[in-house]
Design a protein that fits this description.
The chain is an alpha+beta fold and 530 residues long. The protein folds into three domains: 15-61 and 110-275, P-loop containing nucleotide triphosphate hydrolases (Rossmann fold, 3-Layer(aba) Sandwich); 282-380, Rossmann fold (3-Layer(aba) Sandwich), CATH 3.40.50; 394-528, 2-Layer Sandwich (Alpha-Beta Plaits), CATH 3.30.70. An eight-stranded antiparallel sheet has the order 18-17-23-14-15-22-19-20. Strands 28-25-27-26-30-31-29-32 form an eight-stranded antiparallel sheet. A seven-stranded mixed sheet has the order 2-3-1-4-5-11-6, with helices on both faces. It binds guanosine-5',3'-tetraphosphate.
C-alpha cells in the first residue's frame, strides 16, 4: 500500500478533560466501537488501580499500568472508510504531569470532554493552552446530559470565553436530566432519541429535515416547541461549522451526549474521523518534514521508566513523522550521532502490546532503552534533523531537595540530571547556594523522584517547602541588561539541568510585576530541548 494511503487513514489524538468529566468512560466506549474491547469495565478497572497514590508498591503498580495504557491503537470503519486510530493517554488524576502536556505535542487533534454540570474546569483550561501552541484542532463532547446541568447556551458561552475558541454546535440537546429526550443533529437533520441504560448504540434515529414536521410534536410533546425556539435562536447566535476554522484550531464543533449511556458517542466518533486531520507536516529546525516523505523520521515525546529496580530499562515513546518504520531497521540517533538497530519496537494495541512489523506517520512506537534517549530526541533514516515543538513546560509546583547524606551529592546530581532528561521532573540549581529545586506539574512526580533516587541511585533524599510558585526561562538580546538582571535577581535565579537560566518567583503577581519592570527580558513558559 502506498505511504499516502497509510497516512490518510490514520488519526492520532488525545482526550483533554478535567478529572471526572468522563474521559475514561468515553475512552471505553470508543474502544468498544473500534472492536478493541468487548466488555465495558476493562479501562475502568485499570483506572481504579491508578487512583492509588504513592507508596513504593503502588507507584510501581501505577507505572506498569500507565505503560500499558499509554497508547491505544484500534481500527474503525465509518462511511465505507477504514481508519487506524491512535488514542494517546493524557493522565489526568494523581498522575497528571508534564507528560500529559507533552503527549499533546505528539497528536494531530484532540477531543475535549466537558461535564455539563461543571462547565469548563481548570485542568481543561491548562491542556487547552498547550493545544493552542500548535493550533491543534479540537472536537468537543459535552457529557452527562442525562443529569441536570448548565444551560447549553451558557456552556457554549463559557467555552468561548474561558477557552477563547469559537463553538459550532453540531447537535443540540432536547432537555436534560430526567427530561433529556435526545439530540437533534443540525447537519444531518435527524433526531436521535435517548433511552437511558442502553448497552448498544441502537437508539432511534428519525430523519426530520423540516422542524415544522408534526412528527416532532408526537415524539417530543411540549419539548418540540422548545427545540424549535432553541434552533431559531441558534441560527442567529451560533457560528456555523467551518472546516478551515476547525483545522486552524480557532473553532470547535460541539456534540452533546452521555458517555455512560453510550449516547452520542458513535456520532461523535464518526464526525471526528471524518473532520479531524490525518498526520500532517512537522517542523524541524532545518526544515518542514512531510509525512509522505520516504525517509523515516520520529521524535521522542515520553519516557516511561520501569519501576522495578531489577530491570532498569525504560520505554521511549516515539511519534513517527514520515516514512515507514519496519522491524529491524537501523535509524540514526542524531544527538549522539550513532546508528542504532531497532529489533523490537512495541506498538500498543488497545489491551496488549505487540511487536511492530511496520508503522507509519502518526503511529507511536515504544523502544526499550537504557537511559540513552532523551525527550525531544530525533531519529531518522539518514538526514540530520531536529524536530521542534516538544518543549519543557514551566513547572507549577516546587520542592527544595534535602539530601540526608551529604557525601552523596554527586550521585544526587547524576540522578536528578538523568531523571530530568526522562522528563520525570525538572531540576533547577539555585545561583545562590547551589540548592536543588525540583519543579513538576503534578505532585506524584515528586514522590516518584524520591523513590527512584533511592532505588536507582542509592540516594536518600526528601523535600522541604519552598516559596517558589512560578518559573520562567529568561533570555535577553542585550547582554548588559541581562547582566544587570542577573545581579539584582540572583536570589531568584537558577539554572536548569541543561544550564538554561530560570527565574523563580513566589507568586504570579510577582512574575507579572517583574515582567513589567523588565521589558527587555523575555520570560518563556516553555523551553525547547537541545
Ligand atoms: P474521568 O476519566 O474523566 O476521570 O471520568 P470517568 O469516566 O471515570 O467518569 C467520572 C464519573 O462520571 C464516573 O462516576 C462515571 O460513571 C460518571 N459518568 C461518565 N459519563 C457519564 C454520563 O454520561 N452520565 C452520568 N450521569 N455519569 C457519567 P463515578 O461514580 O465516579 O464512578 P463509577 O462508580 O460510575 O465507576
Amino acid at each position: 500500500m502506498s505511504l499516502n494511503t497509510e497516512i490518510e487513514k490514520r488519526r492520532t489524538f488525545g482526550i483533554i478533560s478535567h478529572p471526572d468529566a468522563g474521559k475514561t468512560t468515553l475512552t471505553e466506549k470508543l474502544l468498544m466501537f473500534g472492536g478493541a474491547i468487548q466488555m465495558a469495565g476493562a479501562v475502568k478497572a485499570r483506572k481504579a488501580s491508578r487512583h492509588a497514590t504513592s507508596d513504593w508498591m503502588k507507584i510501581e503498580q501505577e507505572r506498569g499500568i500507565s505503560v500499558a495504557s499509554s497508547v491505544m491503537k484500534f481500527n474503525y470503519q465509518s462511511n465505507g472508510h477504514d481508519y487506524e486510530i491512535n488514542l494517546l493517554d493524557t493522565p489526568g488524576h494523581q498522575d497528571f504531569s508534564e507528560d500529559t502536556y507533552r503527549v499533546l505535542t505528539a497528536v494531530d487533534s484532540a477531543m475535549m470532554v466537558i461535564d455539563s454540570g461543571n462547565g469548563v474546569e481548570p485542568q481543561t483550561e491548562k491542556l487547552m493552552e498547550v493545544c493552542r501552541m500548535r493550533n491543534t484542532p479540537i472536537v468537543t463532547f459535552i457529557n452527562k446530559l442525562d443529569r441536570e446541568g448548565l444551560e447549553p447556551l451558557d456552556l457554549l458561552a463559557e467555552i468561548e470565553e474561558k477557552l477563547q475558541i469559537e463553538c459550532a454546535p453540531m447537535s443540540w440537546p432536547i432537555g436534560m436530566g430526567k427530561a433529556f429526550k435526545g439530540v437533534y443533529n443540525l447537519y444531518k437533520k435527524e433526531l436521535n432519541l435517548f433511552s437511558a441504560g442502553s448497552k448498544t448504540n441502537d437508539f432511534d434515529t428519525i430523519q426530520i429535515s423540516d422542524l415544522s414536521d408534526p412528527r416532532l410534536d408526537e415524539l417530543l410533546g411540549t419539548q418540540a416547541d422548545e427545540l424549535r425556539d432553541d434552533i431559531e435562536l441558534l441560527e442567529g447566535a451560533a457560528d456555523p461549522f467551518d472546516l478551515e476554522h476547525f483545522l486552524a484550531g480557532s473553532q470547535t464543533p460541539v456534540f452533546f451526549g452521555s458517555a455512560i449511556n453510550n449516547f452520542g458517542v458513535k456520532e461523535l466518533l464518526d464526525a471526528f474521523v471524518e473532520l479531524s486531520p490525518a498526520p500532517g507536516p512537522r517542523d524541524a529546525m532545518e526544515r518542514t518534514v512531510h509525512p509522505e516523505e520516504a525517509d523515516f523520521s520520529a521524535f521522542c515525546f515520553k519516557i516511561q521508566a520501569n519501576m522495578d529496580p531489577m530491570h532498569r530499562d525504560r520505554i521511549a515513546f516515539f511519534r513517527i513523522c514520515s516514512g515507514r518504520f519496519s522491524k529491524g531497521m537501523s535509524v540514526r540517533h542524531h544527538r549522539l550521532g550513532k546508528d542504532i538497530k531497532i529489533p523490537n519496537a512495541t506498538i500498543f494495541m488497545a489491551q496488549n502490546r505487540s511487536h511492530v512489523e511496520e508503522a507509519y506517520a502518526g503511529d507511536i512506537i515504544g523502544i526499550h532503552n537504557h537511559g540513552t534517549i532523551k525527550i525531544g530526541d530525533t531519529f531518522t533514516g539518514k538526514e540530520p534533523l531536529k524536530f521542534t515543538g516538544i518543549p519543557n513546560f514551566a513547572p507549577e509546583l516546587f520542592r527544595r531537595v534535602r539530601l540526608k547524606d551529604p557525601m552523596k551529592r554527586k550521585q544526587l546530581h547524576k540522578g536528578l540530571v538523568q531523571l530530568s532528561e526522562e522528563g520525570a521532573v525538572q531540576v533547577f540549581k539555585t545561583m545562590l547556594g547551589g540548592d536543588y529545586i525540583l519543579g513538576a506539574v503534578g505532585v506524584l512526580q515528586f514522590d516518584v523522584t524520591v523513590a527512584r533516587l533511592n532505588a536507582e541511585y542509592k540516594v536518600d533524599a526528601d523535600y522541604v517547602a519552598t516559596d517558589f510558585q512560578v518559573a520562567r526561562w529568561v533570555t535577553c538580546k542585550d547582554d548588559k541588561k541581562m547582566a544587570e538582571f542577573r545581579r539584582l535577581f540572583e536570589s531568584a535565579l537558577a539554572e536548569d539541568a541543561d544550564g538554561f537560566l530560570t527565574y523563580l518567583a513566589s507568586s504570579a503577581w510577582k512574575l507579572n510585576y517583574t515582567e513589567e519592570q523588565w521589558p527587555d527580558i523575555t520570560f518563556h513558559k516553555t523551553r525547547e530541548h537541545i
